[in-house]
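Blinded run. Sample ID left blank on purpose so nobody reads anything into the name before looking at the predicted structure. Input follows.
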Amino acid sequence: MADTSSITDKIERKKVKRAARKAAAPKGPRTGARGENKAKIKKAARGQTKR
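Blinded prediction complete.
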């Protein structure tokens, strides 16, 4: 992505970033599931959140 640290105007910075995203090569397909590297838990206590 373009280096926008020198641009102080927010709107201009967004324009430059968007143009850089459009010009970049498309990302390839995923090699695995999105959360496969996330830490897994065996069992959570009932009523508690799992992460």
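Unblinding after everyone has recorded impressions. The radius of gyration is 20 Å.
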